[in-house]
Write a structure and sequence with these properties.
Strand order of the largest sheet of chain A: 1-4-5-6-3
Largest sheet of chain A: 5 strands, antiparallel
Number of domains of chain A: 1
Strand content of chain A: 25-35%
Radius of gyration of chain A: 16 Å
Oligomer: homotetramer
Helix content of chain A: 10-25%
Shape of chain A: globular
Number of strands of chain A: 7
CATH topology of chain A: Thiol Ester Dehydrase, Chain A
CATH superfamily of chain A: Hotdog Thioesterase
Amino acid sequence: MVFEHTISLRVRYAETDQMGYVYYGNYAIYYEVARVECIRALGCSYKSLEEDGILLPVYEHYSKFIAPARYDEILTIKTRIKEKPTSSRIQFEYEIFNENGKIINIGSTTLVFVNKQTGRPCLVPDRISRLFDVLS
Amino acid sequence: MVFEHTISLRVRYAETDQMGYVYYGNYAIYYEVARVECIRALGCSYKSLEEDGILLPVYEHYSKFIAPARYDEILTIKTRIKEKPTSSRIQFEYEIFNENGKIINIGSTTLVFVNKQTGRPCLVPDRISRLFDVLS
Amino acid sequence: MVFEHTISLRVRYAETDQMGYVYYGNYAIYYEVARVECIRALGCSYKSLEEDGILLPVYEHYSKFIAPARYDEILTIKTRIKEKPTSSRIQFEYEIFNENGKIINIGSTTLVFVNKQTGRPCLVPDRISRLFDVLS
Amino acid sequence: MVFEHTISLRVRYAETDQMGYVYYGNYAIYYEVARVECIRALGCSYKSLEEDGILLPVYEHYSKFIAPARYDEILTIKTRIKEKPTSSRIQFEYEIFNENGKIINIGSTTLVFVNKQTGRPCLVPDRISRLFDVLS
């Protein structure tokens, strides 16, 4: 593994559904918050990446829902980047724990660096590569 | 009143919360769908408006929640434009009815025509004004 | 394959993000709408299933994002149930096409039949099994 | 005024729309987070209120959008309860400021105390009234 980062967030009422749990589609939002803070901790704000003309859309998304998350719980999300991004992709893995320390969700997303002008995939920007060079 | 339009839509599971009803924030989405179809019926696609460099952000939003909307119900939304937009604003009024014909929500939104380049309010575009001239 | 169903829906403004495309987390909502209509076409309303004390939470969710979906586009979603559900699970597969007929997203979800009282997985309800018996 | 509370939160990517700003419907979520933390600061968790059989649905909602909120900004939300709730209602007022201290949104919501069993409005629970007695 090359980098790991942990955040906590509280489940909002808006994120629940009538089953009384967090709606499954909202885990994608939790993953987004987690990976944005992960790369911020690495030294890069995703916002500034977009301002530099690089988009980072999601290409693949996988989630396994082990146990439900409930309203008002504080969830802990561990985000891992297992490999330094090489070509035009970067992968994040997630584990979500509830307040009792029980793992309730695991997932992964693969994102693609895209040139905003051309709309085409591009190589990992140098400013991102360098962050990983410092780590290893 | 200068124009009225009615649409129906079905409540999605994602739109409910753990109270078992539609989350109050999601009515804003219903209003959005309703007013977009209202102006499409008038003869204008909001998408084309944005392509012409005009944005239409919401300036004011009011909702009264009379009775809950439930999962899987088909809601009927009546949208009214009571006055031809003059300066840089347009107002929509909404009434939402459930499957029993009971009124469950009323609301209104005021939107502002904004020049995408400058980010400043602009006059109602001619192509919008003309749609109302035909009506009256 | 045992059952296939197709629906169409229009992308809402609320579903876009500042990249100008549908936010990746919202495909889960599209899948939900598609599978609910799929089982309705089979002869079962998911709402009535919950009223009978059976919940159907998502256990696994996979998505591949091939091309972006844009505001106001009418998307066509094909939902497939490839195998009759046997134990306590049911799997749905999805293909999403844009207005040009281009495939833009594929995905799958596995859901678990859960007894609302106990919160434990349960066997596929008879009323669901029977729908598939009629098909084959 | 009887009580005021301030929170901060960061705008999520999921909350933006293709205009590049926070979607207007998402302010309702910000208000929800703000008022839940406001009553927690007062000494009451909304979650425990529901566990006691009291729901607190929104009856009226008003928002004025003064300036846009942008992705990744940290917003500051001031929530005010101007009057001790008396009959069955409680009103919250909100002001949202961006990172430059500029006010970008004001709003208010009126919520109704509802008995979960009967679905009917009920008097403000004693445990809530008492919180305000301590204040004054």
